[in-house]
Amino acid sequence: MKPAARRASSRSASEVQAAIERFLKASPKPALLEPGEELLQLHRDNFVLDSRNARLTIQAWDERRNLVRRIIDIRHESRGRLELVAERFARKPGPLFLIDLARPAAQDWERRSTRLVFREQFRQFLSREFPGWKITELSAEQDLEHSLSPAFPRALLRKGAIGLAAVAAPPDVVDPSGILSFGLIWLDYLRKRERRMAIEGLMLFLPLGKERTTCLRVAHLNTSVARFEVFAYSEEGYTARLDLRDSGNLDTTLEVRRTPAAFHQETFTRLEALGAERVELNNGEASLRVRGVEFAHTSGNEILFGLTDRVALRHQNLAELEQLARELARMRSPHRPARSDLYLRNPEAWLESQVRANIETIDATLLRYPIYGQVPAFAGGERGVLDLLATDRSGRLAILELKASSDIHLPVQALDYWMRVNWHIGRREFGAHGYFPGIDLRDAPPRILVIGPSLEFHPTTESILGYFSPEIEIERIGLALDWRKSMHVMFRLRGAERPR
Fold first, then answer.
1. Which helix (H) or strand (E) holds 414?
2. Which CATH architecture has domain 13-103?
3. Mean pLDDT of 459-479
4. pTM for the full model?
5. Are 408 and 181 spatial neighbours (Cβ–Cβ below 8 Å)?
């Protein structure tokens, strides 16, 4: 059983020193952390505790730093962590932490240390770019209630009755383009919280070389409701405001669509009678699926089948292929009470199969055929969202974004796909590349239909959509929870409308 954490105040220098020595002796990997500074690991030969005239001082150093602080008191003492009160510049007290890195919980402190270091860099960026503004709030802490991420430090700047929201992407963040979702959430939150202040806009800071995606997205926000600016910073800490008109072209390609070969029609018919669905791919091949799970596909003039290792279809193993289709249909049945791995696998693909089969339920103006998947393709082909591209009876393209679970970035992912499709529409490439044959496609920007279970839309979705450009026509379609059994639309919301 862990000992209870202990608080203390006004201890003598000798008592504080004894507590520090006790902690260091019990810690296999002690480290010193001061908010805003990098973590400094302690060894026998890189720190000194000095007590003179009732003043306790700690000095620690490495190849680049030499930290000297007077220790005033102990604020909190627990296993693996000792929070000290140290005297900083101008005799201002501040926290100083001793941490045992050998403990699993110390990993969170290492991450926090990195965040705090970059938070102070962010402070410098803001002071340099906005010299006449006061930084009234700066945080790198998590706020689950308001969906604010610790991965992107955020700030509030103020000049009189005017405010600016600011967010930064650290150099080591996994996906720096996630900054826009959290930035818009922060902007919207401040506008609701600071009723007496006019929050004019959002300032975004990204590492140099990783700003392009965000710049392209920001160019499609509504500048009549907020001011948006993007800054890039270098490894040396220099910052520069970017010209959003000079963001470059989209990294997008539209492959020429190949017509599927007329092989294996009899086999396809037999498998479709067993519950399989045939999806024509843009490369001229066909995929055979049961409620989204592929169990066979064509390759040239052959059919390869299997859930893991694929084998070529021959007359002698046709019964094996049919049995696989039957078993998969049984395991993926929406009426099956058991929740096997096959049942739970890839819910977005199951949702896709339902949308393809019930396209008029989703939108009565859409044509049942053709419907294409992942056109144009993204680099690597991996996204958290499945995309379908359809057209309505007037020849206007519609993007169908499918998501079976909550995703905070869903609106900006839809924006990404809209930008690509719209780019190719402007160059009239869809018809020229073999898509939608016989249909007179319009030059109008595409619509976006975001489709998912009604309770799985993230609560910040409306906040983010409220800042999209009016030229982007987007509709959210919420499905009943039993969408695997049948498709029932629970709500249709345009733009930033909220459910009643």
1. helix 410-426
2. Distorted Sandwich (2.70)
3. 97
4. 0.82
5. yes
